[in-house]
Amino acid sequence: MSKLHLAQAMEMARQLLEARQLNLLAVGLLIALLPLLPELPMWLFPWAAGIYLWRLKALKQQSAAIKLWLKLTVVSASLLLLFVSSGSFFSLQGFVSLLVLTGSLKLLELMTSRDYLLLIFLGCLMAACQLLFSNSLLSFSYSLFSLLVLHVILLSVFSNESEKILNAGVKSLVKAHKAATVKMAVIFMQAFVIAIALFIIMPRIGSLWAVPINSAVAKTGVSDSLRAGDIAKLNQDYSVAMRVTFSSVAKPAMSQMYWRGLSLGDFDGRTWRRNKQLKLLDTEQRKQLQQAVNKQVYHYRVMQEANNRAWLYGLDMPLASDKSHQQWQDYSITRNNKLIQRYQYQLVSPASFVDQHSLSAKQFQYYTALPGTENPKSREFASKMHQQLGGSAAYIEKLSTMFRQAFSYTLSPGQSQSVHAIDDFLFNTKLGYCEHFASAGAFLLRAAGIPARIVTGYQGGQWSADQDYLLITQSQAHAWLEYWQAQTGWVRWDPTTFVSPARIESGANDSSLSVSDAGLFSQFSHRSWLNKWRLNVDSLNYQWHRWIINYSSQKQFSLVKQLLGEVNSSRIGLFIVLVFGMAMLPFIVTFYHQIAKKEHDPLLDALKLLDKRLVKYQLQRIHRETLRQFLQRAAIKCPDQAVYLRQISRLSETVIYAKSSVSGEEVQQLERLIRQLK
Amino acid sequence: MLRKWLREQFNQSIASRNKPAKEHLLARKNLYIFPSRLGFCYLSFTVLLWLLGTNYQNNLLLALSYLQLSIMLVSIFHCYLNMHGIKVRIENSEPVFCGELALIPVLFSSSHQRGHQGVFMSWNGDEQIPLNWQLQELLCTNLALETTKRGFLQPPRLELRSYYPLGLLRCWCLLSLDERVTVYPSAEPGLKKLSVAEGSVSTAQSDSVHNQPSDEMELADLDRYVAGDSLNLIAWKQYARRGELYKKHYQSHQLPSLDLKWDDYPDANPEQKLQHLCFEALHISPAQKYSLALPTVYLPAACGPAHLAQVLMTLASFDEQATFGAGDGDG
Question: Which of A195, A208, A587 sits opposite B51 (nearest CB)?
Fold first, then answer.
């Protein structure tokens, strides 16, 4: 019975199912679908388009129903195809593909208005799904736009305009849609205000159950192993690696901005890797770091891009305080899960830190190990030189001078085929970028018996236009090294600085050296207006991510507290009601204003006022009593007002019975007279 | 089943609150809003979106789900204000014979300039008729109701509903309209019992009425009988000539008039009797005087359309069980 009811109620909608309506729906769905295309299997979109065309053809030939066995064949075929192409439905991509497939198959079944409306809802879901893959401001705006389009289609189903659309030409069709769009835009705007309030207020609950994550996030940025000579040409990648906001006033100089990621202490003769046997930071180390922090400290918040890696970056040496982070003996910080989406964290670093931690014999051995027999020339050079100079300090000084005088920096050093890559670099090419310098430096130090390890991370950064945050791109990825000495502990040593001081001073982008090598890309960032624009866009993006994407329950609490003074249910309720009222008020006011305009009759108002005045004298109009009789009665009861009452009587009769020839003035006069009654 | 039961309960509670009236203005008191089935569907999509957003800890998905929720909230207002201000006025309707369609004129007017979109009306909730407000302030429709019973037809409650703007909400009202349509019995010819007591005069007369109610014949009758005959026209002419007949006409009206009697049709059941009487009343010439005798009501003989209306009204309102007087019959 109720089924029938609904069907009847949507009779109008049912009539709409003709080609034009189908096309309209298809446009809406297409708009919602477009951003998902890269995530879908190749065949899915043409397949869906084919199904749509088939349905359209059937509709135009008036044979609305497609044969059941045909439908079943198509459905099973597409499910099979999907299963074969995506492997499983239990991945994010599989889920989205299934959604799109369901939508397109539903087109075949599109018979009643209910199917039509259901498809609109499916479209809304598709429009939302693109946000699973990208959460930029642009994607969000686009999904809002597609949502708006779908709602306009929905609205046009339920308004009078639908009749117009049915039997009208293109011109009035556009007009009708314009009206629907305007209406929907008003609703959207009001809803937006309320949605913002809900977004701010509604409590965040963590994941309710485990969900398939987007496994397609590429590993980017700094890797956890390093092998000099592997990469012939380093591509300048200007995508954002991370952004940093300092909350402390003190900020390190640009040349001191070493964003430390991992230390690579494990060397097998060719490749530097992360130490697998590393232990967590012990209490003594933590205490030392804490003491250093108490002196002068940098507070900062890092927002790291998704890179599918688990470690975090901080100014050396950072101190992690978050419980979900682990800090290791080499001061590197990791997280339990790999970053598949942007992640924000807070760190502190002391302005200066002397590591007084002593190495155990085992550790000393580990950090000086040079297994294998590769690079014999370098080994020989190192031991000879160390002996000659008679001390580590002098030896390191000598190396610095050597790098400065004889080496140059390039991003495309060419691939080294030799097993003795370091020998090749040190004694033949003398050309390279940070990895070459770091690995050669560490090799030479270890060969001289000085404990050394390579550190990877980022160097430098670029301040945003308003100096609010530091932008660090992948092109600023860097490698340097740390060596250990009894008095000073682990000391940072960056051989690349000696080669190309300018590069380190201002960050990789503006390096005069890299211009010739990196070619177009760095020239690109040289153009000031383009760079400015890029920075402005990034600034917007940053605020977007900072406030919207990473709006967490902690932030929520502090913001709501700031906003309402106190966080309790009554205040929150009041807040929502207030916002709701604010959103609706302009609309309601104009609405009632219109009614008032239409129903406002000055004469009637004046007579109402008269009644009100005379109530004071216990005078009330009796049923079937004319105004004149009433006023006469009133004049008898209060003779002192009789003059006015008679005047009112005369004037009101003129106004009522000679209405057509009466101007507004007389009514006003009447009102004035009534007001004179005491 | 539960849904239907709930709906009925609700409608009854509405009915007890709304008094019947000739005119209704749709406002807060008589408008009701509830999510439609589509609205619940929309809500479940919103919840799905929220679940996605929560599980992926994706603030943007959460924001979209809040947006959808807000759209639903906002459309409550738009839905209500769309229906608000419609004036429904029911006009007096013409009496009909049973079996005919009763047409009740209903006027819809709007107190807003912006008009009303997607409003449907229905009686009994079975047929939805769209109200198309485009470019007009006043909308007049005739509500057609099938009549199956003699008597007074109370129009069922008028339901106005709208799913505007997004179909997520149903805004409706149930209006009891203070109007009753008089339904005369359907006119059916019947076999009349030949009356023994009345003699052949009345039978012959009724026959003559049925066969040839022409003026010549009645004029001839007048000549044969004396002045002051039952036939009105001739009485007037007589009055013009002599003047004295005027009085005589009134004194002697009972003699030649026809009697429509309940007992004329002994074989028929009460309803059929009324139908036969109705048929007879309709086929008497306008000038013929006749009386109506029902078990509880007696209408003295008279003629003319007013009398006919009164007779029909009496037939329509006749209640066998009750011993009540004839209806006021002002129709």
Answer: A208
